[in-house]
Amino acid sequence: MVTQKIRKDDYVLLYLSQRKTYMVKVEKGKTFHTHKGFIKFDDLIGKEYGSRVLSSLGVEFVALKPLLRDYIMKSVRKTQITYPKDTALIVMFSGIGPGSRVVEAGTGTGALTTALAHYVKPHGKVYSYEIREEFLKTAKKNLKRAGLIDLVELKNKDVTAGIDEIDVDTIILDLATPWLVVPHAYTALRPCGTLVSFSPTIDQVVKTVEALKESSFVDIKTVECLMRRMQTERGKTRPQTLMTGHTGYITFARKAMKPEA
Q1: What single DSSP character describes residue 130?
Q2: Digits of tens for pLDDT over the chain (261 positions)?
Q3: Gap between the Cα atoms of 135 and 109, Å rounded
Q4: Is 36 helix (H, G, I), strand (E, B) or coil?
Q5: Average pLDDT value for the chain
Q6: Distance (Å, rounded) from C-alpha 75 to C-alpha 187?
Q7: Which of 22, 43, 97, 188 sits at 20 to 30 Å (Cα–Cα) from 164?
């Protein structure tokens, strides 16, 4: 049976409750303080992931191995991030996988970039465009923490002025004016390549769909993903009162050959 033990400088998700988790880097000789007492990192090193540990106040935590969603939801944020519910659809409909070459714009602080890099490894590449340099610095930190920086090329460029790469598998847009990128995307994509655009307003979607039709994209679909958690307790099971509702509309399309004159 394969076991995974916590090592120095690993990231650990300390689970206290459904509402309280902490992503920490296990640094030798250091201590993590919470309102439920402190935990010495030296006491974590050598334990298996999933182990239960007690704080200085005797409160139990569970040391979990972070999942992709944890690196995303616990990332350093300076912008709104793409939530896992939308990321899952983007990945599925885009068709990306190991070895895919993906162009993304804009990077923001790298939440979606992290997911894309995870799914194209070990030999794929994500080329991520962002016009704000301060966002790229934060994205780089988040990608390094997730161990995915080598799969990403961060580009401080305006994607509406053009795309450097050619014959890419997918182009994913999360910016205010995606319709301005559509002609460049058509040139950069390989035949049958996919384009995905995430927009918060329907006006953006309409302009983007019109541009996609004008540029010989086909199989154009727009969806909205709503996710609601359930309170599951005997005699009290019901939908939770609060939910992550509208975050944005996701438009998918595929590149087709231009019609003959």
Answers
A1: -
A2: 556 899 999 999 999 998 899 999 999 999 999 999 999 999 999 999 999 999 999 999 999 999 999 998 888 776 778 888 999 999 999 999 999 999 999 999 999 999 999 999 999 999 999 999 999 999 999 999 999 999 999 999 999 999 999 999 999 999 999 999 999 999 999 999 999 999 999 999 999 999 999 999 999 999 999 888 898 989 999 998 888 788 999 999 999 998 876
A3: 5
A4: coil
A5: 94
A6: 33
A7: 97
pLDDT digits (tens, 9 = 90+) for 181-200: 999 999 999 999 999 999 99
- Amino acid residing at 51: S
CA distance 205 to 62: 43
CATH number belonging to domain 11-66: 3.10.330.20
Determine the Cα–Cα distance for residues 82 and 84; give it in Å rounded to an integer.
Answer: 7
Instruction: State the span(s) of the chain assigned CATH 3.40.50.150.
Output: 70-255
Around Cβ 177, how many Cβ atoms within 10 Å?
Answer: 14
How many Å apart are CA 132 and CA 257, to the nearest integer? Answer: 34
Q: Is the peptide bond before 122 cis (omega within 30 degrees of 0)?
A: yes
CATH T-level topology, domain 70-255: Rossmann fold (3.40.50)
Element holding 135 (H helix, E strand): helix 133-145
Strands (E), the chain: 11-17, 20-25, 31-34, 37-40, 51-54, 60-64, 101-105, 125-129, 152-155, 168-173, 189-199, 217-224, 230-231, 238-239, 249-255
**Which part of the chain is CATH 3.10.330.20?**
11-66
